[in-house]
Design a protein that fits this description.
182 residues; mainly beta; ten-stranded mixed beta sheet; 52% strand
Amino acid sequence: MRATTIARATCLAGVLTVANLAVFSSTAFASSSTTNFTGHCDPSIPGCGFGFTPALTGPLPPFAKIGANCPAFLSGDWSLDFVSGNSISHFTSNNNGGWGTATAQGPANLTTSDGTVQYSGHLTEWFGGGSNKAGQTDGGFTLNFMGSGQAGNLSIHVESGSTTNNSGAPTADHSTATLTCS
């Protein structure tokens, strides 16, 4: 399912990371063995890692800050997608919980809803999170894109993070997104 806002993408990234860790590590809680996984793939391929494509989609959520000199189409529907690249995912679980991270980087395009490439550049994403058998979780997401196009240069920085205590109550939750144009 395609996310329709940066907010949904960033929040979903943290939730999926923590949820995946909880699912993968649930069997580890019952045993004393340790499970490790490392995987490599091209982030432009659907299903790679924790789902890197699309990296982000518009329109922008209320918490996003967009530069006054940025093109109007950035307030509408758009998609930021890897064209190719490299990614690596790690996961470890044991009888106390599970922890994982994924990093992807490579060339990417920002396209408007009509399929026109507006910016091309370099995209980097990082996900990380963990959970323990008592129920405490943490998850985070960072994205950086530097691109250029007919309208000039575009920089996107997004970060999101959340934690819960052993009762599942949120103890921290934040999301920021900044788009700068020059």
